[in-house]
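Input:
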Amino acid sequence: MARITLENVRKEYGDVVAVRGIDLEVSDGSFVVVVGPSGCGKSTTLRLVAGLESVTDGDVRKDGESLVGVEPKDRDVAMVFQNYALYPHMTARRNMTFGAGSATAFDDEEIERRVTDAAELLDIEDLLDRKPEALSGGERQRVALGRAIIRDPDVFLMDEPLSNLDAKLRIRMRAELAKLHEELRTTTVYVTHDQTEAMTLGDEVVVMNDGRVQQVDSPQRLYDYPANRFVAEFIGDPAMNTLDVTVEAGADGARAVHPGFRLPLPDGDGLDAAAGSGAVLGVRPEDLSLADADSGADAFEATVTVTEPLGDSLLLECRVGGDRLKTQASPRSDVGAGDTVALTPDPERLHLFDPDSGEAVYHSAGATTAPDRDGRATRSPATTPEER
Amino acid sequence: MTLLETIVDVPNRAAEYLSGERTGDRLARLREDGLAVHAALASLVLLLLFPVLVAVIVSTKESGIITGLGGLVPGGNTYANYYRALVELEFYRYMLNSLVMASVVVVGKLVVSLLAVLAVVYYRVPYKDIVFLFILFTLLLPVPVRFVPLYRLVTGLGWNNTVLAITVPYLASATTVFVLRQHFLSIPPSLVENAKLDGVGPLEFLWRVLIPMSKGILVGVSVIIFVYAWNQYLWPLVIVGDDLQVAQVGLGQLRGQAQAGDVAWALTMTGSVLTLLPPLVLLVLFRKPLLETFSIQRK
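Output:
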């Protein structure tokens, strides 16, 4: 068990900057997922914690003690790799015990006992005498997890451990990982490019892009209150619609004005500052509903260009005043390409972003009910202007 | 399949043909495979093997002078020739010396190369690429080129006429380093990283992970090294005396035996065949890992 702190950590490879000064706090026993597109520096960050790479600048601390210059083996962390990193010539059991002798103070008997326990926990008792080539992808990943578990490290570091598995197995292993963490409560840092994995697994999710932390928050708050356009568009599938609008203040409140619609915006923080200028309106496809003809002034018309039946819903790509947006309709809706539909956005679920910096300036959900902070501080990147 | 693969594959395919249940099947299969191609390949193989076959035949004759095709009939002196060469003329001694030399070179070269590759691949050595290039550069300086300074060095150390003299100069091998490096680079880095996190030391990693994972290639490289060492002639001739002399040089002793006023060709060929045997046995036994080493095995 341990707390990991990253302070202004930078990593450069020659001229290439992989990590541009990030601050992060991983509290004891938590499951933190670092998510971002490939090349965003998330794996590098994990390797910096593991000690497989050395920081160019800044500090990595475990329980307050600096890890800079500490050998990987002395950090008491165990890593699970995307390609499992099992030794092909050793049986599953040997793979699990091989490093344990050097990494821990356990004697052989203790290691043996721990292997049995881990095998039971992971349901791989029957596989212990097989070599990796005789195991399926999921079984290999279990063995790799078992190897990390029997070491009983302070921290688990997982580098896209589910990426090599097929979709079904990934979902099953995801649930098992969550269960495993529930039982072990070992501090875990988990890196993935898959936002679904991030949302489902993380106590806290760190969204990274271009070597910087974009937002650290609980999954739901990340989804409801994205700190900037990148987070808004990265989290959620299908991605959030973004449309250029002008914010106009009027007697009956502010409106987002677009060639295709004039949308009333509920009063809220940041709305006054945004009034009179351009902004980017963000609205998720699932927050746009197909309205009846008489649903009132909030509805606007859109022309359907493409329909994508997903089974559980019907994804519509529409054109509104020259812009495109996506929306979800009920699966058996009688809507086809070329049809005109009326869309009503959920007034509680609108976002405005600064068109230049991409920072969020307004969330309509915050307007009517204050966000439940749940005792958790919402940390935004250092570049966020404080006055917003 | 390339020609080389076809040739190497001959024993397997021959066994396949012979295990056919009926003769008809075999003929049909032969036709299917292309008779003309097989004929062409067979004659090429024969051409390659011809000198060796002649040597084998001559080693069975009394005089060993062949003047025409009619002379290519095996003689009845096989046992006498081999007994005389091996026992009376003590050729077995040379072969034993060669065996010792080649074995020491194989083990020594593997140890040195493995350690060098471990450093070149897994350590952060400054100017690593230049170091590796420098190692490759030594390919341009084989033993014969270094002859004179090497002779002075070895005699200066007082090693002349010792096993050290015919083994130590061969221990560094750029070829082996190169082959092993390419192989080690193909091993996923995450294995090393996991070992690092577990605190598995470099030598333990080498011994328990890298070597077991590289068995095939190590056997292949060993065969190449063995054949190379076994075939050394000039350096042993210069640096060691008769009691440590190797088989290739020992052949000359056999030729020196006059036979009815002529060069003893039959005995010479007997020695040649004997000298050929150990590498041949290794090649046959380890042909699979050998091909793997050169990455031309049929996948």
